[in-house]
Design a protein that fits this description.
CATH topology: Arginase, Chain A
Number of domains: 1
Number of strands: 8
Shape: globular
Strand order of the largest sheet: 2-1-3-8-7-4-5-6
Number of helices: 10
Radius of gyration: 18 Å
Helix content: 25-40%
Distance between the termini: 6 Å
CATH superfamily: Ureohydrolase domain
Strand content: 5-15%
CATH architecture: 3-Layer(aba) Sandwich
Structural class: alpha/beta
Largest sheet: 8 strands, parallel
CATH class: Alpha Beta
Length: about 300
């Protein structure tokens, strides 16, 4: 049986709206409410975060709090690498999506000579750099960090030297290649991201395509597309689901997946022994106008995933 470990990263430094740090707690509350012991059935390690720095002045406006985020990255690297080296399966339950870049970097550091594929289930491409960001929020940049992609050809911002240095430092060496990324559900992007997706030929599975082909066939094609990859990482942002479900998240978007569709995508992917890590992000109970529905829905998706892994 696969040894599973939960790694919680309750950072919200990269988000534009407060509350994502409460996502894991909301899932715990949902588990207690519904008598689901899932989150207590496996060892859990909590990564130190720096949310107190949210009260500090911002001195890198095109990459807000990037220096503090990089410090959190270091803690993530330690935990994910140790988990992989112990032959355990890391399930990362994080706050905002910025920290996914650190998870990807960790997998690459643990397996430096292996080719890594990424399945990015999200309403957003998260391919902005400080040069292209409309907000400065680093949770819109994790894939660009992992790719070490500046996208200067589509720049809209002029960076100061401090931000540029911090950006180069947090990126380090590239952890993956654009041809080894598959998007699922991406439907809310800006022009610089669209240009990058087009120029790099990044594969994107729309909600409509998934429904036309069915989840099983779609995932089969994705695994074939990533067949040259040695390992696959799954990143699941709850805003990939339709905003009717996912109002308890920072940036909900209409016309997304149903919870059942999201669960099927993840579970079919997890049947591949190449999948080495699953991450779930952006649950924000402070924005959930329906109670704790988002966390309850995410817990159900996670429950299906854990059963498949185990």
């Amino acid at each position: 049986m696969t040894k599973i470990k939960f790694i919680t990263v309750m950072s919200e430094l990269g988000a534009g709206t407060r509350g994502a740090s409460l996502g894991y707690g909301a899932m715990l509350a949902a588990s207690h409410t519904h008598g689901n012991n899932l989150l207590n059935n496996y060892p859990t390690v909590e990564v130190p975060v720096k949310n107190a720095s949210l009260f500090n002045d911002i001195n890198t406006p095109f990459a807000k709090r990037i220096e503090d985020i990089k410090e959190v990255f270091g803690h993530i690297h330690s935990e994910v690498i140790n988990t992989l080296n112990a032959d355990e399966f890391p399930v990362v339950l994080a706050g905002d999506h910025s920290t996914a870049a650190a998870t990807i970097q960790s997998i690459k550091k643990a397996h430096p000579n292996k080719k890594l594929g990424v399945v990015w289930i999200d309403a957003h491409a998260d391919l902005h750099s400080p040069y292209t960001t409309p907000s400065g929020n680093v949770h819109g940049m994790p894939l660009a960090i992992a790719l070490k992609e500046d996208n200067k050809q589509n720049a809209v911002n002029q960076l100061d030297s401090k931000t540029e240095a911090a950006w180069q430092e947090i990126c380090g060496e590239p952890s993956l290649s654009p041809e080894d990324i598959v998007f699922y559900g991406v439907r809310d992007t800006e022009i610089p991201e669209d240009e990058l997706i087009l120029s790099k030929g990044i594969r994107s599975v729309t909600v409509e395509e998934l429904r036309s082909k069915g989840a099983k066939q779609s995932v089969s094609e994705t695994l074939e597309y990533l067949s040259e990859c040695d390992h696959i990482y799954i990143s699941f942002d709850v805003d990939s689901m339709d905003s009717a479900i996912s109002n308890g998240t920072g940036t909900p978007v209409i016309n997304g997946f149903s919870a059942v569709e999201a669960s099927k995508i993840i579970c079919y992917l997890l049947k591949s022994d190449k999948v080495c890590c699953l991450e779930m992000v952006e649950i924000n109970p402070t924005l959930d106008h329906k109670g704790n529905v988002m966390a309850e829905t995410a817990l159900n998706v996670l429950n299906d995933a854990i059963q498949t892994i185990a």
